[in-house]
Amino acid sequence: MTMPTTVRQQVLVLYLDTSALDSRVVGWARYDGTGATRPTTGDSDEPPYETGVAALEDGWRLFQAAQLVPPYPGAEHETSFLKHEFLFEKLVTA
To answer: How far is 82 from 63, CA to CA, in rounded Å?
Structure first.
């Protein structure tokens, strides 16, 4: 008897230096719907990928890109959230 296969989602959040997918990763988080690992948020000195394109080349599928929102006049140099957020997914069989 074969066991039914279950597809689970893994999510990778990459924050890039600019809005270009080939710019460097400056922050990240991973979420694993298989339960194999716990969420990790920048838990090492090295990002999981150097760029968003590198994640694509490794089989991650891009499903949301950062909105390009210009800063409010006078707020160009204020510290705030990381605005170049890209969401990737992998579907894996568990």
So the answer is: 18
Burial category of 34 from C-beta neighbours within 10 Å (exposed 0-12, middle 13-18, buried 19 and up): middle
Q: Which tokens is 48 given?
A: 């999981």
Q: How far is residue 2 CA from its own chain's centroid? A: 34
Going by pLDDT thresholds of 50, 70 and 90, the confidence category of residue 67 is confident
Note the pTM of the prediction, 2 decimals: 0.78
Exposure string (b/e) for 8-30, b if CB count within 10 Å is 16 or more?
eebbbbbbbeeeebeeebeebbb
Q: 48-58 burial, b if ≥16 CB within 10 A, otherwise e? A: bbebbebbbee
Q: How far apart are CA 66 and CA 80, in angstroms?
A: 15
User: Which secondary structure element, helix H or strand E, spans residue 56, and what is its range?
Assistant: helix 52-57
